[in-house]
Amino acid sequence: MSSLLVIQHAASETIGAFSTVLANRGIQVSCLEAYKKPEIPTGLGSHSGLILMGGPMSVYDEDIYSFLGPERRLIQNCLRENKPVLGICLGCQLIASALGARVVPGAAKEIGWKRVTLTEEGKQDPLLRGIPAVFPGFHWHGDIFDLPRETTRLASSEMTECQAFRYRTNVYGFLFHLEVNEETITAMSGNFASELSVEGIEGASLLATAKEVLARLGPINQEVFERWVALL
Asked: For residue 168, what are the CA distances in angstroms to 34, 125, 144?
C-alpha cells in the first residue's frame, strides 16, 4: 500500500480537498506539522512520495524557521531517489529553491480568486491535459521565483509569470492553492486576518463566491490530483 509524507507549515493549510482522493485510493498519510515539531527527516523511508503544503513564512527565512533548510535537503534527496513530490505555494517555492532557483518578494501580494492560464506546455502536460486552459485559482502568496533550470513552466497568472512547473515527470510545483475547499479558505481567512487587513481585503469576500467557484474547480482539482497520485 502506498503512503505519503505530508509536511504542513500552518494549522489552516491542510491537504483539504485532496483528502478525498487519498481516502478513495486507500493511501496512508503521515502528516508532519513542522510549525509544531520542526525535526525534518533526511529521507522518505518507506513513504512513496512527498507533499509540501503552504505557509506564511518565506523560503529565505531559515534564521527564523529552522525546518526550512532540512526541508530543502529532503526535497533534494527525494529528487535523487526519483520519488514523486508535490509542492503547494510555499511548498512550490521550496522545490524551486531546492532546484537552485532564486525566491524573492514579488512586487505585490497575490491574494484571492484570480485566473490561472495554462501555457502551451501545460496544455500537453500529463496532469493538466484536458482541463480548461483558463480557470479561477485561489492565491495567497507574496514571494515569486525564477523558473528552475531543467523544468517546464505550466501556468501563469496576470501578476505572476510562473504559477506551476514540472521537473522530470513526477515533481510538480503549484504556486496557487489547488487543494482548497470552503473549510481551508475559512481557516486561512481567520488565521491570517491581519494580513488581509493590511492588503485591504475582506475575508468575507473570499468566501462569498467560494461555493460557486469550488463547484466548478472540484472536478478539475480531483482529476489533477488523481493523476499525480497515480505516479506513486
From this structure: 27, 11, 21
The residue from 9, 139, 141, 177 that is catalytic is 177
Instruction: Name the grid cell of 87.
Output: 509542492
Fold assignment, 3-229: Rossmann fold (3.40.50)
Q: Is 212 a catalytic residue?
A: no
pLDDT digits (tens, 9 = 90+) for 92-144: 999 999 999 999 999 999 999 999 999 999 999 999 999 999 999 999 999 99
Q: How many CA atoms lie within 13 A of 200 on its CB side?
A: 1
**Residue-wise DSSP of 97-139:** HHTT--EEEEEEEEEEEEEEEE-HHHHHSTTTTTS-SEEEEEE
89 is catalytic: yes
Check: CB of residue 28 under 8 Å from CB of residue 4.
Answer: yes
pLDDT of 188-201, one tens digit each?
999 999 999 999 99
Integer Cα distance of 80 and 75 in angstroms: 9
Q: Among the options 13, 71, 110, 179, which is catalytic?
A: 179
Domain boundaries, given as residue ranges, for the chain: 3-229
From the list 89, 92, 110, 141, the catalytic residue is 89
pTM: 0.97
Whether 110 is catalytic is: no
Q: How confident is the model at residue 1 (pLDDT cuts 50, 70, 90)?
A: low
